[in-house]
Design goal:
154 residues; mainly alpha; 8 helices
Length: 154
Amino acid sequence: MKLKRPMKYYLLRLFRLNASPHQVAMGLTLGFVPNWFPTFGLGLAVSAGLAKLTNANIIAAVIGGLIGTPLWPLLFLQNFKVGSFFNGQTSIVDELESMEYTEVVSDTLSSLQSGSLQFLVGALTNVLITSLFLYFIVYILFKKYRRSILAKLK
């Protein structure tokens, strides 16, 4: 149960932000975006930079980046799966165990034939779909249920 306390802390911090629902939703959404790409440890900085550029909430962006950080293996796998669907080819990565981070990064950056086009198409598609979904979910939560969620968290 070591995760319960930090999660509650970050949820409290998120729902106590003194910002509009749009700014929080945009910050959380933009904070999650870099997790779809190999950022080589700079994901949180990219999240904060995107939030700063778009006048979104920076704290929400960092929390969004933190949420996606442990999920990156699943997100990379999803990029290949979605990219293979749109390219009409079989995915070069079939399961999570066959995916090594360093191999994925080198394959993605080396050439278009090795699967980087598949990865890029999948990543851009996933960013678009999850960003729209995440923005509207967070916006509705903050617009309608912010006070009741805070009361339950206390």
